[in-house]
Amino acid sequence: MRRRSLSLLLLLLAACDGGRLGGPTGGTLATGTTGTNASSGLVGTWRRILYFLADDGSASSSETTWRFNADGTASRLSVTRNFTAGLADAQTVDAKWQALTQTVRITYLPPSSGTFEFTYRVTRDTLYLASQAYGRIAP
Length: 139
Prior knowledge:
Blueprint: H1 2-15, E1 44-53, E2 59-68, E3 73-82, E4 87-99, E5 103-108, E6 115-123, E7 126-129, E8 132-138
Antiparallel strand pairs: 1-2, 1-8, 2-3, 3-4, 4-5, 5-6, 6-7, 7-8
C-alpha cells in the first residue's frame, strides 16, 4: 500500500509541470546570434525536474534551474531531494554565457571552473539545452 501511495504521489507531482517538460511541439523560435545575449531567447529562468522511485520504494527528485540574465551572467541551482528521508541538498554555480549561432557557451566562475558549449533552441516556453527540456518559470 505504501509503495502504491508513493507511486501515486510521484505521478501527481510529475503532472504538476503543466506539460512543459514533454517532447517538442510547435515551431522553433530564434536560437540566437553571436554576441546578442538579450535577443537570443535564452534570457529568463528555466527549470527541469526529474522524479525517481527506487525499487525499495524510496522517492527522490533532481531539480535544475538555470537563470540566464540579459547582461551575460547566469546561475545554475541544483537541488536533490529524498522525499522518503525528508532530506534535500542544494548547490548554486555562477557563470557567464554567450549565445552563438546554435550553441550557448557557458563559463563557470570561481570557485567552479570550466567552459562548455551546449546546443540549444527555444520552442514557446521550453528551452532545449543539450536536448534536455526546461520549462520557463520566469521571463
